[in-house]
Amino acid sequence: MTDLSRVRSKPKSDVVRVNLAGHDLLNNPRLNKGTAFSEEERDAFALHGLLPPHDGTLQDQVERRKKALGNLRSAFDKYHFLRDLQDSNETLFYSLIARNIEELLPIVYTPTVGEGCQRFSEIWSKPRGLFISYPNKRRMAQILSDSRYDEVRCIVVSDGERILGLGDQGAGGMGIPIGKMALYTALAGIRPEHCLPVLLDSGTDNEDRLGDPIYVGWRHKRVRGQEYDDFVDSFVVAVKRRWPQVLLQWEDFAGSNAARLLARYRDQLCTFNDDIQGTAAVTTATLLAAVRATGVPLKEQTIVIYGFGSAGIGIANLMLTAMNEAGLSEEQARRRFYAIDRYGLLVEGAQDIRADQRHFVRKNADIEGWTMSLEQREVQLLDVVRNAKATVLLGVSGQPGAFTENIVREMAKHTERPIIFPLSNPTSRTEATPTDLLSWTDGRALIGTGSPFDPVEINSKSIHITQTNNSYIFPGLALGILTSKAKRVTDGMIMASAKALAGLSPTLRDRNAGLLPPIADARRVSLLVGEAVGKQAIAEGVAGIVDERAFEAALRAYLWEPVYVPYKRQNPIHRSGQHAR
Q: What's the CA gap between 44 and 97, in Å, rounded?
């Protein structure tokens, strides 16, 4: 994290006053320009001899790094390369991503970030963000108090317990907050110094991590119960005191904690959970686009959700709201949903039904007369698809191959354009591949996936596969929250983000087009999502800005572009790296 007390920001056309020099300047990733330091800057900051004589540009550097990246074979090697680049020159890192979003998003985010978390200890070398471990719980205020964090406006925090579909990665889960914050900047123009990744290290139950001699985390079984809750609460209290207006995003907490922590704190500070609300928003947006392509109204769709943890519940709740808005009553809308968890369909008398799942539990009368595939107590996915005549099938289970050929072919019997979203990631955890889904439906399925897949050739046509990636939502959501100075994140703001994205769907012009805009357009998408979110915050009275025109001006003035600006020396220069006071 850059010490922003050493940076004096000015308007984009002006200069930045800096009081670092020599190695200290080159080792500061926020300020380093590498070979793009001008001759005057090399004179002023004692850089001669430390840099090769080449007088380069940002464009030169992007092309050089792009070539080096292309020489690497594995996705993980590319991920490691980019993490090192981020830790040496942030402007170059973000410029490279912004110019190559479609190619590099799968490297810095899903699916490769999953392996990055699994091998985090192997590649960790430089501090980025904050590790707050349980043994340091009494030092939280001290850790957060450093002046280098004065500019922080948004935090992504994880405890590393449920990383994608890979489970408990302990301290390696820090790869997720780092990756999310990188997309805040790369896709939504949020200034790097405003972003702080945090890992709450409460231990790990992953025996592979605990037994790994190079593991960088706290070697201890996970703290549970009241001790864990007190640890998280101490963090929230410390954050609120340090930054009263901060945006706090929860990320990859276990299902048993994710929903209840969001419920506990959502009215205490400006906060959201991307796994619950971001996933719900992008899935709802993609579903609205797919429904438009089928020509069958949303209120006539029958939705089966396979995997009914926090993400599945979040999706169901937001889609329920969309159905209410489409004209169905609450009861009518609920009857369009079938939720399947580890013990099958959620029906009266099923095992381990949680309080937050109860709204979607079916009555026994609802399944009377159903034809079952096997003599068993639980109602399985194939039974639900066959008897309910599902038109929409969503997977957030983390169970690879769960959407079998029999299930998909059964679904295709009942609907002309089956909507199937295998959303689990990384790729190794997907419920079905697009190739199989299209093969089993003779090319008729409308598909959205959690991880990126190449186009599929079928029936002499190349079919683009829509990635229902949360990066369509959370960067723009954060942008709208920050620039509107929102005090809370409301359900209306989440729905506004979904509707804004759905409003950009190519299906508005062509029902056979892709469901979402190209991922290469992510920066434009984030701006429009942010605008919709900020205006909704104003409409609900939770924004610090009350005038829409003032908000629009603030939104566009805020956006940070990854370009080099001139530096001027701010005396005195302390080569030890200590700033003048």
A: 30
